Amino acid sequence: MRLHYTLSIFAGLLCPPAFAANKSDIPTLPLSTDSTFNFQFLIALGDTLTGGADIAPVLGAAKNIKAGDMASFSEQFYKLANQTKESAENPENAYDPVNVRDTWFSASQYFRRADFYVHENWSNPLIKSLWAEQTAAFDKAISALPVPGERVRIPVQERNFTIEAIWYGVPGRDARKLPTLVIGNGFDAAQEDSYHYFVAFALARGWNCITYEGPGQSTVRREQDVGFIPDWETVVTPVVDYVLSEKSHVVDRTRLVLVGNSFGGLLAARAAAFEPRLSAAVLIDGLWDFHAGVIMQLPSDILALYEVGNYTQFDHTVLSLRRAGKLSTMAAWGIDQGLWSFYTHSPSDFFNQTKQYKLEGVVEKIQIPVFVGDGEYDNYFPGQARKVKDALGDRATLHEFHGVAGYHCQTGAGQEMARAMFAWLNKTLGKA
Ligand SMILES: *[C@@H]1O[C@H](CO)[C@@H](O)[C@H](O)[C@H]1NC(C)=O
Ligand SMILES: *[C@@H]1O[C@H](CO)[C@@H](O)[C@H](O)[C@H]1NC(C)=O
Ligand SMILES: *[C@@H]1O[C@H](CO)[C@@H](O)[C@H](O)[C@H]1NC(C)=O
Ligand SMILES: *[C@@H]1O[C@H](CO)[C@@H](O)[C@H](O)[C@H]1NC(C)=O
Ligand SMILES: *[C@@H]1O[C@H](CO)[C@@H](O)[C@H](O)[C@H]1NC(C)=O
Ligand SMILES: *[C@@H]1O[C@H](CO)[C@@H](O)[C@H](O)[C@H]1NC(C)=O
Ligand SMILES: *[C@@H]1O[C@H](CO)[C@@H](O)[C@H](O)[C@H]1NC(C)=O
Hints:
The chain is an alpha/beta fold. Helices cover 46% and strands 13% of the residues. The protein has helices at residues 18-21, 35-46, 55-63, 70-89, 97-115, 126-143, 191-204, 218-224, 233-246, 264-272, 290-296, 300-307, 311-323, 329-341, 347-354, 384-392, 414-429, and strands at 150-156, 161-168, 178-184, 208-213, 251-261, 280-284, 370-375, 396-401. The chain has an 8-stranded mixed beta sheet, sandwiched between helices. It is globular. The model is unreliable at 1-24 (pLDDT under 50). One of its GO terms (biological process) is monocarboxylic acid biosynthetic process.
């Protein structure tokens, strides 16, 4: 994901996550009593809109997954992924590009879901093997698009990492310069997720897209062993360089838009402050201060250990609770993913690092119109989207997503998200 749960990382330590705390506070029929599983199912179901899953198979996997049991979650999606891969490979199906595309996109999705909860032990071979499967499946799918997606690697020599990106062109518009989205995720989602959540919607409306991953994110973290870096312009600027040089014949440089999803909403805003060639930014949703969001979720006794500087005890307590299986799924996952993606084995180091991710002090440098999304039921960083809007003043439009579109990143309501986002872009930058 999206960092689907960027905010909720520690929710389960003390106070249970908001969604689980009060069932009447979720806007849809729950698919699991485990709120994080419910959310994962919604991601997969949401992606059916753009060919990235099928409904009954997802609900079938959900039926066999035990709430709170991460291993059963992984196992069921792995099984479904294997079955779907088999269908994709069957020559009786593979004669046709639409069959190929849909089936491999779905297999890829199921491999990604199978991977979601396996990051506790960095040596778990599934971290790499499931990823190799999702990547191979996805590449087969995008090679069957009307304009095949193109993998791009952009080295950033001075920082010793390489950006992983995918370029998508609009079918039938070769000779025209078109508006273009530059799309990045946050804490946990992969650029392959972005195809289903942004790219397919954008191509249908005549926008080119490039998705990218930087340090800490899915493929870069796995293959290059690097965790998140706060100066995200280091990642975005080379992508913009690439687009404006290599794709200049198809890119309308007056309509180049940066999109940030989940924790990527903060990363994108930060990068936008340093990248004058962008025309607008879209934050799904707005996020002002990552550390503040994380801290808010901590139970007061554990937070106290961190705040008085007893880092040894803090690390010991958090890790023991995790190993003993005493954390909620959300908290356990948040710690696993936080340590893995920030490349540390110390919860206090992870907490320390999160302090560098905030918009204070950089937001004034943003010179472009910004769409700031806000989800009514995304109550892990309450008030943060509004803070982004207030700091930006007239440069920002706050868009509140209510009711069933109110989950974090509007998950499960991709149509409404896309409608709102593209209507704003049309109003702000003109028709595609
Ligand atoms: C749950 O939320 C509903 C409406 O938001 C409220 O009426 C109800 O009292 C809450 N229940 C609990 C146990 O907090
Ligand atoms: C999926 O297939 C692989 C072999 O390709 C196998 O090793 C694995 O056990 C299978 N997983 C499940 C859950 O069926
Ligand atoms: C982590 O996974 C590796 C590889 O499967 C295994 O050898 C090791 O014992 C695991 N570590 C823990 C703490 O479970
Ligand atoms: C650069 O990254 C590569 C792997 O991605 C690593 O092997 C190498 O040691 C790094 N070099 C420096 C100077 O950090
Ligand atoms: C850290 O906390 C532990 C447990 O509460 C306590 O025993 C220890 O003395 C504390 N250490 C420091 C340096 O405060
Ligand atoms: C976290 O930050 C504090 C204060 O700057 C520092 O003393 C501590 O060593 C840091 N912890 C880790 C694990 O880096
Ligand atoms: C989209 O933009 C075009 C012109 O740029 C305008 O005519 C049209 O009304 C806009 N549509 C919406 C829904 O804003």
